[in-house]
Specification:
Layout: H1 6-18, H2 27-34, H3 38-55, E1 58-63, E2 69-74, H4 78-92, E3 98-99, E4 103-104, H5 107-110, H6 113-126, E5 134-138, H7 143-153, E6 157-160, E7 171-177, E8 184-190, E9 199-207, H8 211-221, E10 226-236, E11 250-259, E12 264-269
Parallel strand pairs: 5-6, 5-9, 9-10, 10-11
Antiparallel strand pairs: 1-2, 3-4, 7-8, 11-12
Length: about 280
């Protein structure tokens, strides 16, 4: 039990909530933790709730009753989201990112915890109202983004592998066709990695025609699982809509064009702001 001044208690309660997104915390937990009356805790939570909503940090949901409590839902306001996406587009537009063949170098951005955490919070905002059991991605570059999203939603992350590992035990493997290169690839998932009939949020760092993501969708069918949503950090704008293998997804940035000769990259905000 901690006896803290109210100002210190507010700070610690706020951090406690931020560390436990989407987790229902009974009021008795705080009352016992700080040796305070539930009425005082309720007043504290009202202050935190107001600050969260005013600053666009998230929402604080209160559930009444014996089994009730408080739950922090990470959310990002539109203005803050637009500021982040504009910064992301600016970073992606740096000329030195152009690789031979017109490819775009993104690995350094995927290795920035702060940037990935913000991207994860955007996906947590986009899919906040959906019933999700886990976050899925395919190795390897999408892993930081998937874990950031999983942290904001307080959900486990499931990793799909390109090749079966003996340490994974029994697994399900499927072949899929790359949507852009029309080449055949394999992906595999351990049978222990995910329960059947799970509701899954698929997250990936880059999508061209959507072949890899469609492969994950087909793999989920083998587990009788349901796709709860699809989020991609960057999508290619060079692929026509009718050529894309999936239409229902959320993107944070759209890569319109890469000009290796002119050393120019055109990137703009994705459909996060335009989807219905």
């Amino acid at each position: 039990m901690k006896k803290l001044k109210r100002s210190a208690r507010l700070v610690e309660m706020t951090q406690y909530l931020l560390d436990r997104p989407h987790q229902l915390i009974p009021l008795t937990t705080f009352a016992q933790r700080y040796g305070a009356a539930k009425s005082s805790i309720s007043e504290d939570l009202a202050i935190i709730k107001e600050v969260f909503e005013d600053e666009g940090t998230g929402e604080l949901h209160t559930l009444a009753g014996a089994a009730g409590g408080v739950k922090y839902i990470p959310m990002m306001g539109r203005e803050q989201a637009l500021h982040f996406v504009e910064q992301l587009c600016e970073k992606l537009s740096e000329p030195n990112r152009i690789l031979p063949g017109g490819y775009l170098y993104m690995s350094d951005l995927l290795g920035l915890p702060g940037l990935m955490n913000e991207a994860g919070k955007l996906f947590a905002t986009a899919f906040a109202g959906r019933d999700i059991d886990c976050v899925m991605t395919v190795e390897t570059k999408g892993i930081p983004l998937a874990y950031a999203t999983g942290a904001e939603l307080n959900l486990p992350v499931v990793l799909v592998r390109r090749d079966h590992q003996v340490t994974e035990g029994s697994a399900v493997s499927i072949n899929y066709v790359s949507g852009s290169h029309k080449s055949l690839h394999t992906m595999t998932l351990s049978r222990r990695a995910m329960k059947e009939k799970s509701k899954v949020l698929i997250v990936d760092d880059f999508m061209k025609a959507g072949g890899t993501i469609q492969g994950m969708v087909d793999l989920l069918a083998e587990f009788d699982a349901e796709v709860a949503g699809v989020g991609v950090l960057v999508e290619s704008g060079e692929v026509e809509s009718e050529q894309r293998l999936l239409q229902d997804y959320v993107s944070l940035a759209t890569l319109r064009a890469v000009d290796p000769k002119g050393k120019e990259i055109s990137v703009e905000p994705g459909n996060y702001f335009t989807r219905k």
